[in-house]
Amino acid sequence: SGVVTINKDGNQTSIVPMAGSSVRAEVNYSEYSSTSTGVKVFEATTNENGEYTLEIPVGTKAIAVTVKPQILTVDGVWYTAPSSKVLTLTVGQKVTSNFLLAADVDIAGEATVKGQVLYNAGYKKVGTEFVLENGYANGVSVVLTDADYVFETTTNAQGEYSLVVPVKKDG
């Protein structure tokens, strides 16, 4: 658990809780079983006070968990955490991990990634020919990732999606 806040003016005088921020925790499956691969993701959304809680199962031995709030935009400014935190958890332990997000000066602006997800609904006979008919994929999760962040949305009834993502400065 913890609190996510943003520093709106850069000099510690305007630190405010960030409601609706997404916090992700990742645990390598190898933490649970040495022969397992991949990553298990846990996610929470902050409440109106910027507070979040993640419940992560722990076995008989301590596990390492990487925690980081996702990038977000407020009034046209993108805020990021300086880094992720690696925590060691043991059975029954409660850990508090607070994050203060700062304006990311390496972001030049933003871009919108949008599209439509269709599926093959089958063939329809038109005259003497069969024509492929597409259907709209409603409620499909669309995920865009980079090295540090995950952007996620769901398609609407027409299969359309739109994601606003930051654009880094050159160099």
Q: Rg, please?
A: 21 Å
Please work out how many helical segments DSSP would assign: 0
Estimated helix fraction: under 10%
Mean pLDDT: 87
How much of the residues is beta strand, in percent? Answer: over 45%
Helix-strand topology string: EEEEEEEEEEEEEEEE
Question: How does the overall form come out from the CA principal axes?
Answer: globular
The termini sit apart by 36 Å
The total count of strands amounts to: 16
Class per helix and strand makeup: mainly beta
Weakly predicted, low-confidence segments: none
Largest sheet: 6 strands, mixed
Describe the structure.
This protein is an all-beta fold and 171 residues long. It has no helices and 16 strands. The chain has strands at 2-7, 15-17, 22-28, 39-45, 51-52, 63-69, 72-74, 77-80, 85-89, 99-103, 107-116, 118-126, 129-136, 141-145, 150-154, 160-168. The radius of gyration is 21 Å and the shape is globular. The mean pLDDT is 87.
Annotate the secondary structure layout.
Elements: E1 2-7, E2 15-17, E3 22-28, E4 39-45, E5 51-52, E6 63-69, E7 72-74, E8 77-80, E9 85-89, E10 99-103, E11 107-116, E12 118-126, E13 129-136, E14 141-145, E15 150-154, E16 160-168
Parallel strand pairs: 1-10
Antiparallel strand pairs: 1-2, 1-5, 3-4, 3-6, 6-9, 7-8, 8-10, 11-16, 12-13, 14-15
